[in-house]
Structures are given as structure tokens and as C-alpha cells.
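Board notes (copied after class):
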Amino acid sequence: MSLEADVADLWNRYQDGLTVADATDADAAVVDEFLAALEAGEVRAAEKTGDDVTSWEANEWVKRGILLNFGLRETEPREYGGVTYHDVLPLRDTDDLGERGTRNTPDGTAIRRGAYLGSDCIMMSPSFVNMGAYVGDGTLVDSCDTVGSCAQLGENVKLGANTLIGGVLEPVEDAPVIVEDGVSLGAGCRVTSGFRVGENSIVGENTLLTPRIPVYDLVEEEVIYGHLPAERRAFTRMVESSVGDHELFEGGAYKPAVVATHVEEDTLEATRREDALRE
């Protein structure tokens, strides 16, 4: 049987009432093999099926495999940096990172089991990459960044300091966050609830990208939700709220929106200077 078939069989038994106490060594081997496949990049929580950023589709069986790793494991005391913590999963073994040119700075970079990091990545401390996340080659995860469960980051992505990439498990979402190749997210950005960022886009600091906030795309002159097209420069602006001229709001009420326009040459030059700092 394939790994996918093994996970499907185990999921069906779990739905029928299989517990940690009932799980066999063979069951444990399946969930361990699944984690190893995630860490090797052999399976992913989502895949791109077309040319557009909207074509990404979640792999439901992968999400089920992740849930099995919580449902069929017990919380145990574990050691990290001389500190005892309690979790269902240990942190990821990082012995393979150095040989691929990927570095994680000490005292605060945590990579959970089931996470994939490509070649020539940089993880600055403190930062955290959760189970099922995929971090592509050459991507920078800066200080105080979180990459949530199953989030898919492409190659040569830059996450500014204090950036949050949401996951599918916190809170539970149907699809993971997607950040395609060459994207640069400024410090303090938040990308949540399965939002998708198209390749080579540059997002200004403290921008919130979520399906509930409209994106005013000035390139195609349309309002869209849930994704940012490729090669856009995006930033937050306030637009008039439907609350309007409520008496509690002197001068009217406003809500946040995202404005997307062409990537300008001076913006590209700034990102090139950042690239030079990493070489």
C-alpha cells in the first residue's frame, strides 16, 4: 500500500473509535513515516494545479495525517535546550540542515516535527515553524516570526520581523496560507485564514491579509477577496465603513482594506539591497 492509502485506512479506523491505547506498533510506524515524508518534502499540504495563485488545492489526506499525529499520540515530557516541555511531538531533528546550507540561529529557533525547510534558508531567533509547513529554498524567516501549520512558503520568500503566517490548526481552517516564490512581506505583516499571496509581490509592513478584508486591485481595477495577484505592491488603507455616519463616530466610521498596485522600480531596488545583505 502507498503512504496515502495507509493514512486513509488509519484515518477510517480512527473515525471508528481507534484510540492511543488501541494503536499498534504498525499504526505508530505509519504516522512516523508520514512525518518523515513531510520533512523530506515528499508530500505537501497543498499543491498548485494551474498558473494562477487561486489554483492551489489542499491535500485533504495530508491534513488527516497531521490530525492523526495528534489523535494517536500522548503528551510526553521532552527536552530542548536544557528545558523540559510537554507536547505530543518532539522538535524536528535538524542534522540535515547544515549540509543543505540552511541555518538556524541559536537560542530560540524551533522547528516542529513534520516541517520542511529547503536549501539555503535562514531562520533567525526567535522564530517557529509548525508541523506540516513547507519553507522553500532561499527563504528568510526573520526574528519573532511564526510559520503556522501546513503554511506553504515558496522559494526566496522574505518574512520581515514579527510576521505571522497563519496555520490550518490554529484556528482550524480548510486550506493553508500560500505565499508564492519571491514574495516579500514587511515587518509585522499577518497572513491568515488560507489567504494566498501571488509570486513576486511586495507587501508593506503591518499589512493584514485575510479573506475578510477586501483587496482593491488597481492594476485590474477590481475588488477581490482571499488572494493577492502576482507582482503587486500592497499596503493598508482605510475605506469608508458600512456603519457610515453613525452618531457614535464623529466624521464617519472606517475599516481597513488592502490596496494593490504595480511593483515600482525603486521598491524592487530596495528588495535587491536586502538580498545583498544575505549573500
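Comment from the instructor: The first strand starts at residue 46 and ends at 48. Residues 52 and 198 are 8 Å apart (CA to CA).
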